[in-house]
Amino acid sequence: MNMLNLTVHAMLALPLVVLAANNLLAKQTARKIALYVCAAVAFFQIASSVTLFVMYTRYGITHYDFNIFDPGQVSADYFSVNRLDLFLMVCIGIVVFVSVMLALETIKDHKRSYVNLLMCLLLGMNGMVMATDLFSLYVFLEIVGITSFVMIAMFRSKVGLEGSFKYLVVSSLGIVLLLSGLALIFMQTGTLDFKAIGESLLDTQDSSRRALTYSAVVLMISGFAVKAGAVPFHSWLPDAHQSADTAVSVLLSGIVIKIAGIYGLIVVLDLFGSLEAVRIIYQVIGLVSTITGAVLAARQHHFKRIAAYSSVSQMGYIILALSSGTTLGVVGAAAHIFSHAIFKSTLFSNAAAIHEEVGVLDVTKLGGLEKKMPITAFSSVIAFLSTAGVPPFCGFWSKLLIVIALWKSGDTVWAGAALAASIFTAVYFLRLQRKVFFGKLADGMQDVREAKNSIGFIEAALTAVTVGAGLLFPFALQYLQTAGII
Amino acid sequence: MNMEFAFLLAGVLLILAGCFCLIRTYHLLKIIIGMELSMKAVTLLFVIAGRINGNMELSQAFIITIIVIEVVITLVASGVALDLYKKYGNLDVRNLRNLRG
């Protein structure tokens, strides 16, 4: 068990080692092998997180506290890993792996910078889920944020710089909100440790202190909602996702908004879940995001922009799941984070394939690609069915969990609304599929071919995961039940 | 009015001043300055928080961290603004209208 726990240390240390090695190696060598090393790091993270999750369940370990400098010493813990964190790290590993696979084909120059930034991003995200106080959470959040700004602007296209600048400004405002909230909490407690905050803030009857707590909670939720791209803070998200290179957009849409935004909201729920106001805010933000994102997605013409607005809508679902405030709700949210990571990665891989082979991503100019790109079309249809919540794909099960969690916690109205909002998802993706893959072949696309090596591979692999996870989901639920989680 | 309250008021006013600057101007560098102003103002809130609860060490550590991170953000923002200047020849934020819908 001790040996296995060392892999948790490795998840923080490996990105740094790869980062250093990437810059120390000769340029030609680094360009050749760095991306494969990144893929190996991501694979290591997936494998060891899954193993640790199973081991923790078997031996009844709830969490492992550690300190990065002296492994094994328990006196000063800065980091902690529990099973939710491990599950999120599996998702991080998967999306990073997909991004590397896309980068092998789409990124021709700046490979070294891409690897550097990717490793920083991985470090930031792993650190965020492992952090045990709001101070480190903020520091890792900023690592994730700053790396994303640079990654969007990295290729110096007009649109890339524009998307990056918009993201930067909106996100700094979010950080200002978040920090003001942290200051208000810190003012009352004198500490930023998760354990100490929850106990000391909520048992007071003094009305002015309660007012301070409430404003701190609202400020923190707004700060994280900016990062999650929830309505009404979503304006940066489609711009940033559309303008970045596809290997970067898949990271942003697949995992960054979830770790930087949703994980923060999970932490707020953990700390202040007993306040009724938190749940009400989550319900409102969640439902409004779900519907607004879906309606706006139906009006777009750019493939990646539709996928980005779909992310807004799906983030709404996850926040709705959190609003139930129960363990089942958090499990549903985590399951939806997983299935969203899978199907949104698939859709962005499709975008990469179309961008590489056809060159345009405007859906009005595309058409009839089904015959020319069968793998892309098939995986896209599967991903769409999973998004819309059609059984037996894994999107169906996670949405089902969310609806059940809302129903069980007494929010029947919200559960019904979540079901109804599912229909909107079908609308915008049906439109996308019809325009891109079916119908008459568009002009000048006679000699379009199927996606090349790694993009085609990752599309097929992700489709297999969508179908496989969907079919095995009942067993996963059974496993969680015997493990005593739900 | 005691000193804590004055500091708190100053902090909030400075944050609002930064946000006002963001709304008011069309110049990229002025936007960055406004952004910086409001982010620096947050450190004032931490100063006052540390004074009220008596945990000045953590507060100082946090403030220094915030300042360092803000420098990095300003650097990235200025770099993006510089590249935008090279593309468009001026620093008007109204150029940024390629992404719509």
Query: Helix tally of chain B?
Result: 3
Biggest interface found: A-B, 43 and 40 residues
The whole-number mean of residue pLDDT values of chain A reads 88
Head-to-tail CA distance between termini of chain A: 25 Å
Uncertain stretches of 5 or more adjacent residues of chain A: none
How many beta strands in the DSSP annotation of chain A? 2
Shape descriptor of chain A reads globular
The residue ranges of chain B in which pLDDT falls below 50 over 5 or more consecutive positions are: none
Rg over alpha carbons of chain A: 22 Å
**Amount of helix of chain A:** over 70%
Number of domains of chain B: 1
Residue fraction in strands of chain B:
under 5%
List SSEs of chain A in N-to-C order: HHEEHHHHHHHHHHHHHHH
Bulk shape of chain B: elongated
Query: What CATH first level of chain B would be assigned?
Result: Mainly Alpha
CATH-defined architecture of chain B? Orthogonal Bundle
Structural class estimated from helices and strands of chain A: mainly alpha
Radius of gyration of chain B (Å): 17 Å
List the helices and strands and how they pair.
The complex is a heterodimer of chains A (486) and B (101).
Chain A lengths: L1 H23 L2 H33 L3 E4 L12 E4 H24 L4 H20 L3 H20 L4 H32 L4 H9 L4 H22 L7 H8 L2 H27 L3 H22 L5 H21 L3 H31 L16 H15 L5 H15 L3 H25 L16 H30 L4
Antiparallel strand pairs in A: 1-2
Helix pairs in contact in A: 1-2, 1-4, 2-3, 2-4, 3-4, 3-10, 3-13, 3-17, 4-5, 5-6, 5-10, 6-8, 6-9, 7-10, 8-10, 9-10, 9-12, 10-12, 10-13, 11-12, 11-16, 12-13, 12-15, 12-16, 13-14, 13-15, 13-17, 14-16, 14-17, 15-16, 15-17
Chain B lengths: L2 H22 L3 H26 L2 H33 L13
